[in-house]
Structure formats: structure tokens, C-alpha cells
């Protein structure tokens, strides 16, 4: 799954010369939290609702409404935008976008094409939705969590057990732990969970949990 498959396309953009007042209006009308800044068809910055609110006069200001409006009209996006922008290519795996957001503690990324044009925005909500789809959570599956040793042949051995018991694996995820151990999370439509658990235990695998998640 790639970024282009989950991003919001044709995002609302501003230019460096856009006024603060106009940018605030765009955020309100489109109910969004960030605006990529575009110049000559390229991504040159980004502005967020927090950036805009920081330059707004406080409630304690002695300025008149006319003076406030005049001040906001003079401040341009280029004066407060972040110029060092973290972005992601539309052809990148969605995991790369998730990693960038996690490392940089941000909730959204502008998406660019190979020539640097803004083609979309991907947010943490898009990542969460992708996770739900990848794990097929809406369908309602049995989730088995196994603790295994980090050694060659474990995945093949477990897959053989499922095959021999007539169980099809829908998703298979490994999560490293300390002490040379791994958690393996397996989801599927497993009818005889007790029998499958017994078979896995007989082969030396510890079944930590068996549960049903989703509809």
C-alpha cells in the first residue's frame, strides 16, 4: 500500500503572499488544520492552525477591530511559514509516512510528486484507517498472539501447522521483544480455536492470547 492510495488529493494550498486572514478563512471553510505553501508549482513551506493563532492579537489587545484587520492583512504567509518542510513522495510505502510522523511528532505530511509538486496530504487519520484495512478489522476475525524464539524456520513451521489443520491465515505480523523473543500476531477465520491452540502448544509455541476483534 502506497501513500498515493491513502492521501487526500488536490489539497487546499496557499502561496507565500497569501494573507493571514485569508489563510484562517481557508482553514475554517475546509475544516482542516494545515496548509501547504506552493510557489511556482513547488512545495516551499507549510502553515498550521497553531502557527496562525500565534500571530493573532490576544483578547487583551487595545487595538481596534479596524487596526487588527489592517495588521492581519499586512502579515503574509511567508513571514511565519515553516520553510524546512517534512514531506513524503506519493510513491512511498505508507509505512514511511507513518515513520516520518512518529519520528517528528507531527500529525500530517504534504505529499509531493517526483518533480516536487504538491499532489496531496496524508494525516494520522489516514494512517489509522489504512491500519484498520490492512488488518481487515472491520470483517471480524480471530486474533492469535504467539510468543516465539527469534530463530530461522519459525514462520515456515507455524504456517505448516495452520495448513495441516485447515486454517487460512489472513494476516501475519511479527513484533520484536526483548530477550530474543518475538510476538507473532495472526488473524483469520479460525473455527476450532481451542484445537488450533492445542496444536501450536504441542509444537512448542506459547499462545499468549486468543480473541475475536471486529464485527
Automatic annotation (TrEMBL):
Pfam families: CBS
Top-level taxon: Bacteria
PROSITE patterns (UniProt xref): CBS (PS51371)
Domain (CBS): residue spans on this chain: 7-62, 81-137
Protein name as catalogued: Acetoin utilization protein AcuB
PANTHER family: CBS DOMAIN-CONTAINING PROTEIN, CBS DOMAIN-CONTAINING PROTEIN CBSX3, MITOCHONDRIAL
Keywords in alphabetical order: CBS domain
Organism per entry: Schwartzia succinivorans DSM 10502
Amino acid at each position: 500500500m502506497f501513500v498515493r492510495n491513502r492521501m487526500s488529493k488536490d489539497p487546499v494550498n496557499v502561496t507565500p503572499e497569501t494573507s493571514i486572514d485569508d489563510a484562517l478563512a481557508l482553514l475554517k471553510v475546509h475544516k482542516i488544520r494545515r496548509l501547504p505553501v506552493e510557489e511556482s508549482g513547488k512545495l516551499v513551506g507549510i502553515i498550521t492552525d497553531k502557527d496562525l493563532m500565534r500571530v493573532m492579537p490576544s483578547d487583551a489587545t487595545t487595538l481596534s477591530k479596524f487596526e487588527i484587520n489592517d495588521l492581519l492583512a499586512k502579515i503574509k504567509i511567508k513571514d511565519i511559514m515553516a520553510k524546512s518542510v517534512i514531506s513524503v513522495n506519493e510513491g512511498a510505502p505508507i509505512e514511511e509516512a507513518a515513520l516520518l510522523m512518529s519520528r517528528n511528532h507531527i500529525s500530517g505530511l504534504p505529499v509531493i510528486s517526483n518533480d516536487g509538486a504538491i499532489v496531496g496530504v496524508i494525516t494520522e487519520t489516514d494512517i489509522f484507517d489504512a491500519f484498520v484495512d490492512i488488518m481487515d478489522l472491520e470483517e471480524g476475525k480471530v486474533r492469535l498472539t504467539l510468543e516465539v524464539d527469534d530463530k530461522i524456520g519459525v514462520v515456515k513451521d507455524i504456517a505448516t501447522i495452520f495448513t495441516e489443520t485447515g486454517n487460512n491465515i489472513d494476516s501475519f505480523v511479527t513484533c520484536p521483544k526483548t530477550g530474543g523473543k518475538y510476538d507473532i500476531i495472526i488473524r483469520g477465520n479460525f473455527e476450532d480455536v481451542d484445537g488450533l491452540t492445542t496444536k501450536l502448544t504441542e509444537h512448542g509455541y506459547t499462545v499468549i492470547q486468543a480473541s475475536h476483534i471486529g464485527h
